[in-house]
Specification:
600 residues; alpha+beta; seven-stranded mixed beta sheet; 23 helices; 17% strand; binds L-homoserine
Length: 600
């Protein structure tokens, strides 16, 4: 699945597949799920061809306006093609009256269309070749059927041709029909080496970087040019060259590495501007996994509900006030179902209203895109994170609401964008980031107010013992007790500990962690808000265990490798107030979305 710039479009990368397989699969799905409101974004959809017609008019009128041609002069247009879509739009433009004389089919070495327009046989008995112009690696050219309809004006005849193609893998048109086609169409092809040469030549002569598909067209245009025509010849360009970094690098002698650095080398050398959509993808972590056809059908068409599971987080970890947080294996989970009305089930009474943070976050994700939120039924299915307990319960609700909306929005947002939205709603990146990304996470805000985060490894040997008194502490109250400024020695005390903390957590060095979890920025001021704090702290000192307040409290956190002895000591502790104990390890995944059927 790839993140998309539109909320109602989604792209999948299919396992063990090529364009022809994908297109046949999409056609079969569209027939199977007819009237369910789905369509394809490629030229199966006539809605894709209609705006393409406009490009031909725009180009023609631009030439007129620039004084290159006079209104009414004939032009020829060369179109890179595989599925016969864009060129078919040109054919429709010509039929509508645009003065196009010839349309020139430009193919790569999968030259099935070149052969067809040369000898009238559309013959699938050939190898499917993967090339450096992949969008033209097509053997079953969908829109040719539409051209056949215009050629014969007889749907039964077209059905017979398509039946032959399906059953015999070949169809043939009569000599006189081929001649008729050749009055409008010429056809050329070029191989991969020629594509690279063309990119290089064009860049050297005109300082213009062709993408490989546009290069195929440009090459075919040069083959077609004088003396075959005395019209102006337009060569259609298609994609950004930056989508094909490897071929561009090879063509322009730019060192190639299979990562983003190549792209920036191309930008540096040629000055090509990165298109905004590509920039967005580059700034996001895009999952690369491919899925099978069965999984795609299930993902798109099955009407299932899903569950978002969001972990508790322990912010600050002693000296890392407001910057560091850790996700732990303690969860709140919420089921989302698109519904005809907003409904909240399984929540405490005080949250079964419009102040519900899950719903607020869910709606924010839609409104941020200028969309009216889809009505939703949200059911709390797991409620393990204590409220106002210093374990990021509000973050879990906000992150879950955002992820729930994002799943319904077909993953419009990438995680980094959800991170920004969540901070905006929650205010505490040290809770939001570990909840969303999992693990131990540090955050920093730059001078443009943009947040950045980074994860640190933590030894799996460590366990976190959470002691939560019955009486909670509001974060707002716990912030009010903090001073406005600090003596330099306290700042240095914290900085020295914070600098060493990730290292000790990675090593699982409990002895060092005992020192490193000490803090002079918030704990000394907040401890009086927590019932029996001194008793729990004394126990930590006696047992030489790393200890601190989790977030703004009231939960307190011990770090251990083996919890048994501590649990016994806690049982023996003579406290005045009730408290709960949970032993958890670190959550590495952050919030997850699962289909209800996969959720345990
Ligand atoms: N860093 C914040 C604080 C976390 O300690 O106030 C709130 O959960």
């Amino acid at each position: 699945m790839l993140y998309f710039t539109s909320y109602n479009a989604r792209a999948y990368a299919l396992k063990e597949s090529n364009f022809d397989d994908c297109q046949s699969f999409v056609k079969a799905m569209l027939v199977k799920h007819e009237n369910e409101g789905y369509t394809s974004a490629n030229s199966i959809n006539i809605g894709r061809l209609l705006p393409q017609i406009v490009y031909y008019y725009y180009t023609y009128l631009t030439l007129v306006n620039r004084g290159v041609i006079h209104l009414g002069d004939l032009i020829d247009v060369v179109v890179p093609t595989g599925n016969f879509g864009d060129i078919f739009a040109g054919y429709l433009a010509k039929k509508m009256g645009l003065p196009i004389d010839k349309l020139v089919v430009a193919s790569n070495k999968n030259r099935i269309l070149t052969d067809f327009f040369t000898n009238g046989r559309y013959d699938l008995h050939r190898e499917f070749m993967k090339t450096n112009s992949p969008s033209m690696d097509i053997l079953i050219s969908s829109n040719l059927e539409r051209l056949m309809y215009f050629l014969y004006e007889d749907d039964k005849k077209v059905s017979l041709l398509m039946k032959d193609l399906k059953e015999k893998k070949v169809f043939e048109i009569e000599e006189e029909k081929l001649k008729e086609l050749q009055k409008t169409f010429a056809a050329y092809c070029c191989d991969e080496e020629e594509t690279r040469e063309t990119i290089k030549d064009c860049y050297e002569k005109h300082h213009y970087v062709l993408d490989p598909h546009s290069a195929v067209s440009y090459r075919c245009a040069s083959l077609y040019h004088l003396p075959k025509t005395n019209h102006h010849v337009i060569s259609i360009a298609t994609a950004s060259p930056l989508k094909f970094a490897k071929t561009i690098a090879e063509s322009l002698d730019i060192p190639y590495e299979d990562d983003i650095s190549t792209l920036y080398r191309i930008v540096d050398k040629t000055g090509v501007v990165i298109p905004p959509a590509l920039k967005k993808i580059l700034s996001c972590k895009v999952p690369q996994e491919k899925i099978s056809k069965d999984e795609v059908e299930e993902e798109i068409f099955a009407k299932h509900s899903f569950v978002v599971k969001a972990p508790a987080t322990s912010a600050n970890l002693g000296p890392g006030f407001d910057v560091l947080g850790l996700a732990v294996k303690l969860y709140n989970s919420f089921k989302f179902e698109v519904s005809d009305k907003d409904e909240l089930l399984g929540f405490a009474k005080e949250f079964t209203n419009e102040n519900n943070l899950v719903l607020i976050a869910y709606q924010k994700a839609f409104r941020n895109l200028g969309l009216e939120p889809l009505k939703v039924k949200i059911t709390q299915v797991e409620n393990n994170i204590p409220l106002e307990g210093g374990l990021g319960s509000s973050s879990s609700c906000i992150v879950a609401g955002l992820l729930g909306a994002n799943a319904i929005l077909h993953h419009h947002y990438c995680l980094e964008e959800l991170y920004e939205l969540a901070i905006d709603l929650e205010g505490h990146p040290d809770n939001v980031a570990p909840c969303l990304f999992g693990g131990l996470v540090a955050n920093v805000k730059d001078d443009k107010n943009v947040y950045h985060h980074g994860q640190y490894p933590v030894c799996s040997c460590l366990k976190f013992v959470l002691v939560t008194p019955k009486e909670s502490v509001r974060t707002s109250e716990a912030r009010k007790v903090l001073p406005e400024s600090y003596p330099l020695k306290d700042v240095t005390f914290n900085l020295s500990r914070l600098a060493m903390l990730p290292l000790a957590l990675e090593k699982g060095d409990l002895d060092l962690l005992y020192t490193l979890l000490q803090d002079r920025v918030h704990v000394p001021y907040r401890k009086s808000l927590i019932h029996d704090y001194d008793l729990f702290e004394s126990l930590a000192k006696k047992e030489h265990l790393p200890f601190t307040i989790s977030g703004s409290g009231s939960t307190m956190l011990y770090i251990v490798k083996d919890e048994n002895s501590l649990l016994n000591r806690l049982k023996e502790l003579k406290t005045t107030y009730e408290f709960k104990v949970a032993v958890v390890s670190m959550d590495e995944d952050g919030a997850t979305i699962k289909k209800e059927s996969d959720y345990e």
